[in-house]
Design a protein that fits this description.
Elements lengths: L2 H8 L2 H10 L20 H6 L1 H12 L2 E5 L7 E5 L2 H9 L5 E2 H9 L12 H12 L4 H20 L6 E3 L1 H17 L5 H17 L12 H25 L5 H7 L10 H32 L1 H13 L14 H13 L6 E5 L3 E3 L2 E3 L4 E4 L1 H4 L44 H18 E5 L8 E2 L5 E2 L4 E6 L1
Parallel strand pairs: 2-8
Antiparallel strand pairs: 1-2, 3-5, 4-12, 5-8, 6-7, 9-12, 10-11
Helix pairs in contact: 1-7, 8-9, 8-17, 9-13, 10-11, 11-12, 11-13, 12-13, 13-15
The structure holds protoporphyrin IX containing FE.
Length: about 475
């Protein structure tokens, strides 16, 4: 193990900072690609023409090419595309790729010590503790908590008129998150915390971070972090004495292998990150899914039939496995519109890929968007076709690393079952009561990929009461 691998595994912050200060700039001259404009590099392409940028670059240079950018979307490094690249990076044999240096550009000061930006042994120990909060029984109790909130929330939405669904959907999922993650009922306190959380999320995308002026999103994000920290620190003693079923309470009482509880700061860091990891990803999936079923009315009808065949007023945990077509639809949605289209890492040593040596200290990016549309693996990849995930067709099974909406390897998403449960519960209440229609019959889904996949026009849809 090198010194830096050891420092990351031990979470030795001073040693990590020292390395960061002294790391030499990688020499990428031998790697094909175009570093873009002076100063901003390829930032514009990454933000506004992401899919064209990676597809055109792949055609021109192949599965490895260099880039330059600013702020949250990277500094200087290489793109690695395709299942082979995903395997190399996500399996991370030899501990060559660091999550800390990959994600810290976006998270610093906002989601410090997030599980996703931990490496090696330090990550393994913390993941083990957090895993307990996502066991089957825990998700089952979360489902019972979120079901009535989702049901009531959907019934507040307007019908028979075109309305922008993104904001109300976000609010609904924030209310659900407040209850499931923080144990708070909708009200003044949860509204204040929701706003603080939204400010933190907006600050993640601020390219200037602490260097920007006080009225930029980063400063509001840091304040938001303080608001949530105050709430968490104030409530830890109460939750330790009288824990609820929410994730915050569970983290207050969980222990590691030696019977040690998490410190106040560890509880704060994990709660904050889980809120973040859960919220925008699920909102993104539901937006894309609502759009997809609005544009494919026959398939929407099939899903409604599947739900009505359950013959239930209240969805129970065991019913989820019977919602097979709904499962395929979720999988197909996050194939076509993976919420997290880019996964950043950082090389701690030189590494070979496709005949090139990527030097140590390079930012490395992989993308689900590229492999999810690769015609070598998917038939008509631009078509919404949930049956491709049926056991008969199993198009996702050709290569273990072709389909990576939840990542893979040591950092594979911890909340994938939670996400599926929440989305199925939403659809159960929604499709039983409403039909969704798109703005125009053959309209495009207007969305952006980076930093997360989101509708860029607020997602105008019409709901009709059945
Ligand atoms: C459809 C919804 C979701 C998608 C597509 C998604 C996607 C991902 C991806 C791609 C990663 C790995 C990123 C990387 O390796 O750089 C990840 C990690 C993670 N996700 Fe999710 N996620 C979703 C929902 C959730 C939910 C609902 C939760 C919590 C309730 C959650 C908790 C986490 C956590 C804790 C990690 C970090 C795991 C680790 O570093 O060990 N996610 N997610």
């Amino acid at each position: 193990m090198t010194d830096i691998q050891y420092a990351l595994a031990q979470n030795d912050t001073p040693a990590i900072r020292r390395y960061q200060r002294n790391a030499s700039k990688p020499d990428l001259r031998h790697i094909p690609g175009n570093s873009g404009l002076p100063i901003v590099g390829n930032a514009h392409n990454l933000l506004f023409r992401f899919e064209d940028y990676i597809n055109n670059s792949y055609k021109k240079y192949g599965p490895i090419f260099k880039f330059k950018s600013i702020g949250t979307i990277g500094t200087e490094g290489v793109w690695l595309l395709g299942p082979e690249a995903n395997k190399l990076v996500l399996q991370n044999q030899g501990k060559i790729f660091s999550n800390y240096f990959g994600w810290n550009i976006a998270f610093k000061g906002l989601f410090d010590n997030a599980l996703l930006e931990q490496d090696f042994n330090n990550h393994k120990a913390n993941r083990k503790i957090l895993q307990a909060a996502f066991k089957k029984e825990a998700v089952q109790s979360h489902m019972e908590i979120m079901s009535p909130i989702l049901k009531n929330g959907i019934h507040q939405w307007p019908t028979n008129t075109l309305f922008k669904t993104l904001t109300p959907l976000k609010t609904l999922l924030l209310d659900t998150g407040s209850k499931v993650f923080l144990g708070l009922d909708p009200g003044h306190e949860s509204a204040e915390l929701n706003q603080a959380f939204v400010n933190i999320v907006m600050a993640v995308a601020d390219p200037f971070k602490e260097k920007g002026p006080f009225f930029f999103p980063y400063a509001r994000g840091v304040k938001g972090r303080q608001t949530i920290t105050d709430f968490i620190f104030r409530n830890i003693p109460k939750r330790r004495n009288n824990p609820g079923k929410d994730i915050f309470s569970q983290l207050c009482v969980l222990t590691d292998d030696d019977g040690k509880r998490l410190s106040n700061e560890e509880i704060r860091d994990q709660v904050l990150f889980v809120l973040f990891a859960a919220h925008d990803t699920t909102t993104s999936t539901l937006c894309s899914l609502l759009y997809a079923i609005a544009s494919n009315p026959k398939w929407q009808e099939e899903l409604r039939e599947e739900i009505s065949n359950l013959d239930k007023d209240h969805l129970e945990f065991d019913d989820l496995t019977l919602m097979e077509k709904t499962s395929w639809s979720i999988k197909e949605t996050i194939r076509m519109y993976p919420p997290l289209g880019v996964m950043p890492r950082f090389t701690l040593e030189d590494v070979e890929f496709n005949g090139y040596t990527i030097p140590a200290n390079s930012q490395v990016m992989i993308s689900a968007v590229f492999s999810h549309y690769d015609e070598e693996y998917w038939s008509n990849p631009r078509q919404f076709d949930p049956r491709r995930f049926s056991p008969e067709r199993a198009e996702d099974k050709k290569d273990f690393f072709q389909y990576i909406p939840f990542g893979g390897g040591a950092h594979k998403c911890l909340g994938m079952h939670f996400a599926e449960t929440q989305i199925k519960t939403f659809l159960f209440h929604f499709l039983k009561n409403y039909r969704v229609e798109p703005k125009t019959r053959n309209g495009d889904y207007k969305f952006r990929w980076v930093p997360l996949t989101f509708p860029s026009d607020g997602l105008p849809l019409t709901f009709r009461k059945l």
